[in-house]
Amino acid sequence: MNEKEYTATNILILHGPNLNLLGTREPEIYGAVTLQDINRNLSKLAANADIKIDFFQNNAEFALIDRVQLCMTDGTDFIIINPAAYTHTSVALRDALAAVKIPFIEVHISNIYSRESFRQHSYFSDLAIGVISGLGVKGYELALQYALDPNQLHN
Ligand code: CA2
């Protein structure tokens, strides 16, 4: 592992299917915070750090793949992604992230390892710089903090 001085300046936050329902259903698993609240908080942190941040949520696999492919030309240099249910199913979204070669952190609100066995495998974790799972919506903030830390470690 090499230590590099590198700070992300153009970050994409990708939210997978059904995360638009956050705060409106199943608060016992996912909490009461809405997706809008999460994005607003991340926007503030990005503004304080003077970096660009973009947000994209979609329920369709192809739309998420197209957004990842757009990163090849839009200057995105870091991705924070909660692939939601596609975590456990989508070789296609995995292939898109592998193809663009942009470092990413995988975030899950719940601890996928303490849930049903079908949630305990991720198609993304081995490609990710790191995975945050089970820390609630705080996980997004921690991932952003990491992306903005000049002493962060990359493989
Ligand atoms: O814990 C996570 O963040 C998950 O990625 C959330 C996914 C689930 O399929 C993964 O196994 C773990 C589900 C996102 C759906 O979010 C909802 C939020 C509110 C109400 C219903 C669904």
Would you write up a description of this structure?
With 155 residues, the chain is an alpha/beta fold. The chain has one domain (7-22, 33-49, 60-148): Dehydroquinase, class II (Rossmann fold, 3-Layer(aba) Sandwich). Helix content is 31%, strand content 19%. It is built from 5 helices and 7 strands, in the order E-E-H-H-E-H-E-H-E-E-H-E. The protein has helices spanning 27-30, 35-48, 61-70, 91-100, 138-147, and strands spanning 2-3, 10-15, 52-57, 78-82, 104-108, 130-133, 153-154. The strands form 2 sheets. It has a 5-stranded parallel sheet with strand order 3-2-4-5-6, covered by helices on one side. The chain has a two-stranded antiparallel ribbon with strand order 1-7. Helix 4 (91-100) links the parallel strand 4 and strand 5. The chain is globular. The termini are close together. The model has no long low-confidence stretch (mean pLDDT 94). Bound molecules: ligand CA2. Residues 18-19, 21-22, 25-26, 30, 82, 84-85, 87, 108-110, 112, 119 line the site of ligand CA2.
